[in-house]
Amino acid sequence: MRKLVSLLLATLLCVSLLTGCANNVDSTQPTNSAHDGTGTSTETREKAVLWMSGDDARYLVESGLVEKFNEKNEKYYVELVEMTFDTLHDKLLAGAASGEVPAVSQGADQWVGEFAYLDALMPLDDLISEYGFKEEDFADNAWEHFRYLDGHIYAAPFYLENRVLYYRTDILEEAGFDGPPETWDEVFEYAKVLSNGEDKFTMGHQDGWLDFHFFSCLLYSYGGDFYNKERTECILNNEQGLKALKYYEALYDQNVIPKDADKRVEAFKGFKEGYYAMVESGNWWIGLIENQAPELEGKWAMAYLPTGDTTTVYGHPNGWIIPKNSPNPEGAMAWIDFVLQTDTEILMSNAYGLSPISLEAYDDPSLKNADLHKMMRDVSKRGTDSIHNIPNAEAISELVWNMLADVRDDVKTPEDALNDVVKQINPLLTP
Prior knowledge:
Blueprint (H helix, E strand, L loop, with lengths): L3 H16 L26 E8 H9 L2 H8 L3 E8 L1 H14 L5 E4 L1 H9 L7 H6 L25 E5 L3 E5 H6 L9 H11 L6 E3 L5 H13 L17 H15 L13 H6 L3 E6 L2 H9 L7 E4 L13 E5 L7 H11 L2 H11 L17 H10 L13 H16 L5 H12 L6
Parallel strand pairs: 1-2, 1-3, 6-7
Antiparallel strand pairs: 3-9, 4-9, 5-7, 5-8
């Protein structure tokens, strides 16, 4: 039987042959195709095409990082091509077969195992040594998170995406609480006061990938895991997994999170308007609140996620990958080296709230919101090994969030949902 990764690759190759990767309608025109973004001719330098998606591409453009690189580097210039997140994944996957790839690309951590299995990525171990990167100079597991099953590192870290609890200090104080809940059990005590089942709820709902992240945090805090150590067997249906999923179910059944789908609003909107008192989310919310909800100044704070039976949490970095057939791997690495410099990381962090990767950045007096970012950094010390360094990580994650929806919407019991998803996942662990 053909396994999922091979089937996807074959399908996308057919699509690429019929339509051509370069003609994907979701792609934008290069942001600096004629010049380097500064008005300087690019004729004497080598081009390094960079593929990125969504807000991350906007961060680079608006913070001027591409222009800064192109101003400073005498040998290479970067041409940024923006596209949707899904398009980026599909074009990279198709490029593994067609050879139509950029010099360097943003690479979500759940893609690394998939592409490494297809032999579509360049191992970065030698380049890491050549450029003098030392793992101890960066946040915990920043590099290790991208180590594939064969022992090689296939991505360089971009910024942290660790999970914390954002909460409205004004709402909690008005309700008589001195601070956020410290344990998951305490969340229900808070809900007795904060959740009325109508227009106020204790915690916000986030669907899809973000809901997957939330469940992952619950799972690890109760001592569970997705797989055995060898990544050959899914163990979600053990005692710890069941405990985490029953807790997840109870959050909805007891209206801590709105159970009625019609009452769920987008998490940030709900937090901003006081509909939700707390939301589990990542580092990008720091900049999001400051830039899009300045009226909340003095009315919000961050905390470590509540604990279950352990303090372990789910946290991970966003990354950069170099396709195996990159037309300019040297230019790609020059770009990665540039964005990992302390001054570059601080610029990105101050503009958009992204938590730096390099430890040196956290001690720099020019870093805004240093205390918040240090909390994000410290989450890495309590984080897990990557759950995505396997070939079918993307498909497995989708199975998990479908399982969560089934439990949330009373389609399946937690026991049945876990047993079913384990049966679905196990065949995908041996592509």
